[in-house]
Write the C-alpha cells for this entry.
Amino acid sequence: MNSFSGRNRNAINLAGLALGGLGLILGTLAISRARIGRRNEERRERRFVSIAAIAATAATGALAVAMKRSRRRIQAVKSVTINRSPEELHAALRNSGNLPRFINGLESVNMTGEKEFRWVFKSPAGKRAEMRAEIVEDRPDRITVQCRREGREFVATIRLIPAAGERGTVVCLTVETTSRARMLGQPVARVLQKTLEKRIEGDLRRFEQWVETGTVVTTKGQPTGRSRQGLISFLEPAGT
Amino acid sequence: MKANCWYGKGDVRVEEVPDPRILDPKDAIVKITSTAICGSDLHIYDGFIPAMEKGDILGHEFMGEVVEVGSEVRNLKIGDRVVVPFPIACGKCYFCERQLYSLCDNSNPNAQIAETMWGHSPAGIFGYSHLLGGFAGGQAEYARVPFADVGPIKIENGLRDEQVLFLSDIFPTGYMAAENCGIRPGDTVAVWGCGPVGLFAIKSAFLLGAERVIAIDSVPERLEVAREKCGAETVNDAEVNVLECLDVMTGGRGPDACIDAVGMEAHSHGPVGVLDRVKQAAMLETDRPTVLREAIQACRKGGTVSVPGVYGGFADKIPLGALMNKGLTLKSGQTHVQRYLRPLLDKIQNGEIDPSFVVTHELPLGEAAKGYEMFGNRADGCIKVVLKP
C-alpha cells in the first residue's frame, strides 16, 4: 500500500516551494538593482548585493526542504504463515548469521555494536554495497530494524502473531522507505512498491523454507540441455 | 549422461548433458532403471504447458538405484532400489504434516510464478515446467532427488520394475481420483478417459467398493482394455451421445460419481469442440473442458465429480448452474503420492493388483521421441510407454 504524506506535509511542501520561489525572485531583482546602481551609488550597491545573497541562500534552503519533503513514502506489507512457534522464529531472526540464507542478495552480516550491524549486499553482476542496520525494537512478538544506505532509509518491522487454531505463526513483514519518485507521480511509486513487495515476499518464502526444513530449495547447478553440452547451467554456482 | 530434453512443441530429443550432482545435503542421486512417459507429459509435448524452457529435462515417473546421498539423508543409502514420487515434498510444512504432499509450501523455488497464475503455489514437480519448480526430470540416466528422505519408497522384494514403477504417479493418481469420489457399496462410477490414469481409476473404484464402473473413450483398443482387464462397461463417445447413454445406463439417475481422467486436451465431436479449439488457438482459453462439462452434467444429484486430469489455466462454459443446483461436490488436485506409496505397494505385494497391465511398449531411452509420437497419436494401441536408460 502506498502512503501519501497527508495534508500537513503537502502544506509544508507548498510553503517551502513558495518561499523558495519568492527568494529566487527577490534575489534576481536585487542583483539587477545592484548592477544598475553600480555607476551611481556604491552604498546602495553593497546593500542590494547583501539582500541578493540572503535571498539566494533562503531560496536554496527552502527548495532543499521542499525537495526533501517531496519524497514519497513507500510501504510494502507481506505475510506468511510458518509452521513454527513465535519463540523459534524470534530466535532464528535474532541470529544475524542466518539472514544471508534467506534475504535476497545479502552476502554477509558483521556486528558493529550491541544492536548495530553492517550488511553487505552483492548484486547479480557482482557489485557490492553496504548498509548500516540497527535494531531499534526487539520484543518477543516484534523486531524493528532501521537500515541506512546512501542517504536512503529503510525501516523493516517483523511481527510474529500466533496463527489461529495453533497452526504456526503469522510472520508479517512491513518495509517502509522513501523515494524521490514523488515528482514522477503515483504510477512510478506503484511500480517501486510492487518491486519491494515482490522482494520481501521472496525473502519471507525463503525464511519459511529455511526454518521449516533447514534448507532453501534450489535448482541452480542442475543439468539441462540448454546448450549442447549443458555447460552454462552446469557451471552456475549452487544456490544456498 | 543421456537425457530426454524438450525443445519446443512436438520436439523432444535425447541429448548428452552433464550428470546431476548433490546440490543440497538433503539430496540423493538415483541411477534410473525405468522411466515412463505420462499422459500429462503430452500436454508439454503439445505445447500447452507454460513456462517451459528449451533444454528442460522431461519426466516425472521414474525409479532406480541410489548411487549418492547428501550428508543429511537418513532414510536412504547407496544401493537402495527406490520409486520416486512425482511431487517434491519437504515433509515439514503445514501441508506435508497433513499428508497434502502435492501442496508442499517449500519445494517450488519458482513459487512466485505459480502464485501469479493460481493464487498459491503447489509443490515442485520433476520435469514439469518452471511454473512447478523447473526441476530436471527423470527421463534420463540419472536424476537428482531433493528432500530424499521424504519422497522415495524403498522396494525391498523381487517385484519387477514394471510392477512398481507406476507408484510414482499414475497408480496413486487413479487411486486418489477414486478415493475422492467417496465411493459407497453399490455405487456406479463413470470414468472419462481410458488412458493409464483412467484405467487405474477404474481398478481403484472397484477396489474401493464400486459395483459398476462405466468407462468412456473413443479409442477402441483402450475401451477393450477397460472392459477386458478392468471389468468396466464401456461407452465409445465417438459413436454415441455420452450424456444420453449414461442416462439410460443409470436408469435416469446418473452416475454417483464421475471422474475426469482426460483434462485440458479433451476431444469433442460437436461444434462446441470446434469453438474450444478456436478459443484455445486464439489464447481466449487455455483448456478444453469438454469432459468436465459432461461430467458435471451427467453426475447424479448430490454426487461427486473428481478431476485427476490436468488443467492449467482458464476455460469457458463450465456448467456452474448444474454444479450448484444439483448439489455436486467437486474434488481435484495433484496427487499426494507419498500418502499412497505404502498402502498401494502392499496391494501390489498382496497380489490385489498388478500395475504392469498398462504397459504396451518398452523402448530404449534413446527412442523417447518415437515414444512421445506414438503415445500422442495413440498409435499401435499405445497406452503406456516405458523407457529404459
In short: Residues 6-37 of chain A form the longest helix (32 residues). The two ends of chain A are 31 Å apart (CA to CA).
